[in-house]
């Protein structure tokens, strides 16, 4: 059955001398073919959703991907990735989940580009990051300029690169390599991380994936699928606008949502599930046209160790630290993916660890310093971790007092460093590599450490410099030693009132000396 739809599109007069329909031209989006109107119709539908054509001006690619697919977008900064292969494995995992990917270059003449991941495939059709046979593995990404222009990458693995001479014709045909000057090109993941500043991955909802499979006739497609759920709520003055964690008395009054994470695949050895969380301000373009401002929004995630269905109270937040949090910012949506990269990150960490550890598969303070400086000096303005800081890190994780860390100990340390790094960034708003010593108490609260005024004064005297600021290296060593002291105290036998711990002389000296 055919349907006829009557829609009016805005036009303007192009040529006063022309007669008939040819003298009119579409005002906004238009196709090169005068009889093709799908793009203009789609744009009008989007303008109705936003409130007007004017409301569509400006914005990010992530907004469009979310609006047209109903998915959630997670953003990355390729230039700040410590190890490019970490990002490459993340792209592979996103490709398995049918994510839409967009990358862009800021403050350069390169246009936005759509990112596609081409992975090596084994005989059973599952993607892998190793090539067949005894060949050299070079992780590549394929990028397409959506404008279809000839502006392309001209370095290694570009259309005119000599690197392709070492690739067989069969392999080129298998991955569909074409040199047409049409805006599509290849580049190594190292060059990608060097030149591209933003990468956005839109995780599609189950409805979009199911529709795409029906259209393609691939109902038995084995690509990973999501289950999704959405909740609507609001911050209401004097009722549910509890503010951030700094307002502890009212913090519990914020809207709370409970999620139970299960292992979706009982056939593998991994007992974790992947959860992506997004917080969005709805109808933002329509409200902005009416003069409303974007609110500063954010959220925190806590692990609930006991069964229960009611909201958490103030006492819970007073004595429990968050498992993850976002910086409060005035964006339309704040996404966070707490566990989607865990397997990818572990694999990359294991590879980097093995290269430094050597035959004994352990690292000492010197080797640990090399690993961490490579990872963090790209993100922060500082001279790298000093040897004393790395010795304290080793002591914190070294239960057998061997002076070295195995991979599992290193992995646990890395998780703590990620939490402390995120907290430091929250207070280092100007990205100067430090924050004022007055903010140290709140920074420590963010990572779960509450101290008395007397202890706080000692910490400021010990870790602030002459200018009264806390630098990144000093903040990390402060967290390391606080964690060590708290865990040492918790592990000891307590007095009857539970306030004091019982130490023998040797235990006390051992704990104080090896810290």
UniProtKB/TrEMBL annotation:
Domain Calpain catalytic intervals: 8-205
InterPro entries the record matches: Calpain_cysteine_protease, Calpain_domain_III, Calpain_III, Calpain_III_sf, EF-hand-dom_pair, EF_hand_dom, Papain-like_cys_pep_sf, Peptidase_C2_calpain_cat
Any one GO MF annotation of this record: calcium ion binding
Residue ranges occupied by any EF-hand domain in the UniProt entry: 415-450
Biological process (GO), any one: proteolysis
Gene Ontology cellular-component terms listed: cytoplasm
Pfam families attached to this UniProt entry: Calpain_III (PF01067), Peptidase_C2 (PF00648)
Location of the active site: 145
Similarity-based family: Belongs to the peptidase C2 family.
Listed name of the protein: Calpain-3
Organism whose genome encodes this protein: Macrostomum lignano
Origin organism lineage: Eukaryota, Metazoa, Spiralia, Lophotrochozoa, Platyhelminthes
């Amino acid at each position: 059955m055919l349907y006829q739809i009557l829609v009016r599109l805005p036009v303007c007069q192009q040529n006063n001398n022309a007669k008939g329909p040819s003298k009119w031209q579409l005002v906004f989006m238009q196709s090169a073919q005068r009889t093709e109107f799908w793009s203009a119709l789609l744009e009008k539908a989007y303008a109705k959703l936003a409130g007007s054509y004017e409301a569509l001006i400006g914005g990010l690619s992530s907004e469009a991907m979310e609006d047209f697919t109903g998915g959630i977008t997670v953003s990355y900064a390729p230039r700040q990735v410590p190890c490019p292969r970490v990002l490459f494995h993340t792209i592979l995992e996103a490709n398995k989940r049918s994510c839409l990917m967009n990358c862009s270059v800021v403050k350069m003449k390169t246009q936005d580009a759509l990112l596609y991941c081409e992975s090596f495939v084994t005989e059973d059709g599952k993607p892998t990051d190793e090539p067949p046979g005894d060949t050299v593995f070079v992780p590549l990404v394929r990028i397409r300029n959506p404008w279809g222009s000839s502006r392309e990458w001209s370095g290694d693995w570009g259309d005119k690169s000599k690197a392709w001479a070492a690739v067989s014709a069969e392999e080129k045909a298998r991955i569909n390599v074409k040199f047409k000057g049409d805006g599509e090109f290849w580049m190594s993941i190292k060059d990608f991380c060097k030149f591209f500043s933003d990468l956005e991955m839109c995780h599609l909802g189950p409805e979009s994936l199911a529709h795409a499979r029906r259209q393609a006739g691939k109902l038995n497609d084995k690509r990973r699928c999501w289950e999704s759920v959405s909740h609507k709520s609001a911050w209401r003055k004097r009722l549910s606008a509890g503010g951030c964690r700094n307002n502890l008395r009212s913090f519990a009054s914020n809207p709370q949502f409970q999620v139970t994470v299960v292992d979706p695949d009982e056939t593998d050895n991994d007992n974790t599930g992947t959860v992506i969380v997004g917080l969005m301000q709805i109808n933002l373009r329509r409200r902005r046209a009416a003069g409303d401002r974007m609110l500063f929004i954010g959220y925190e995630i806590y692990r609930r160790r006991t069964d229960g269905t009611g909201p958490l109270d103030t006492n819970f937040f007073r004595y429990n630290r968050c498992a993850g949090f976002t910086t409060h910012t005035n964006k339309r949506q704040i996404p966070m993916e707490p566990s989607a990269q865990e397997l990818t990150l572990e694999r990359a960490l294991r590879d980097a660890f093995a290269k430094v550890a050597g035959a004994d598969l352990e690292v000492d303070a010197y080797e640990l310093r090399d690993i961490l400086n490579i990872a963090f000096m790209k993100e922060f303005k500082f001279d790298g971790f000093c040897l004393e800081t790395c010795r304290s890190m080793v002591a914190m994780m070294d239960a057998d007092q061997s002076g070295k860390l195995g991979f599992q100990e290193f992995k646990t340390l890395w998780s703590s460093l990620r939490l402390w790094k995120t907290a430091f960034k929250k207070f280092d708003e100007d990205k100067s590599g430090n924050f004022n010593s007055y903010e140290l108490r709140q920074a420590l609260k963010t990572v779960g450490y509450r101290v008395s005024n007397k202890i706080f004064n000692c910490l400021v005297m010990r870790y602030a410099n002459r200018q009264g600021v806390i630098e990144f290296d000093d903040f990390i060593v402060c967290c390391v030693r606080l964690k060590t002291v708290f865990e040492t105290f918790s592990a000891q036998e307590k007095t009857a009132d539970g306030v004091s711990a019982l130490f023998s002389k040797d235990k006390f000296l051992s704990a104080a000396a090896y810290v």
